[in-house]
Amino acid sequence: MARCRFALPLVLLLVSVLSAQNPPQSDPQALSLVSQSMTALTGGTSISDVTLSGTATWSNGTANETASATLMAKGSGESRFDMTLSAGPRSEIRNDASTTSQGESLATDGSVNPWAYQNCLVNAAWFFPQLSVLGATGESTLIFLYVGQETRNGGTVWHIQSYRYSQSNTPTTRQLSTMDIYLDAATFLPSAFVFNVHPNNDSTQSIPVEVDFSAYQALSGVQVPFRIQRYVAGNLGFDLSVTSAQFNSGLPDSLFAIQ
Q: Hey, CA dihedral for 234, 59, 129, 25, is it positive or negative?
């Protein structure tokens, strides 16, 4: 019995070491679909940043308001969403440029609400597929899985999944960073991103978020979704009609600074 007690920790340590030496690999079929999607989205154009402007309807669960909105992203790790509501400006900022991913909301009353770490592991540029995880296949910690071909909202889609791999806390990191990606089977353009957010004080409680992309138009060879809808827990909370898109304008990092 004593030998068994000593052997079990040794076995667990060996498994841990082997897992660290052999991290999971992305599915080749998933990577092929991601590559085809990026080709369809960019037309070969390199995109470093984007600014989308338009009119959006915002819902807080009890009332709806329509106002101007601006969404900006730089690289795959910085994003900002600004909307001018009657009660004042509202913003959401993500910044993964530092060693720790961060996020915050700026409320209409001027208060700053930092996001818990569990809400900073999924896509920063949730509104612009070209700067999402689809364009970050070179990151060693990002894993893509092929799920299959499915029917979704009456159309045929390719379903793939992404998540972040961490040697220190793999199951939790994977759960919190998982995103389901749906690509139109004919055009390879993303039709939806689906992921979870969580209360700041409870990473085990998941709230589903779905971002739907439609009305794609080509601007200088780049496919831009001119309709972006974000659902939270099944309710439409943000509905944007894009009126203009600007690429590679040299957005400064200061726009994405966390307070």
A: negative
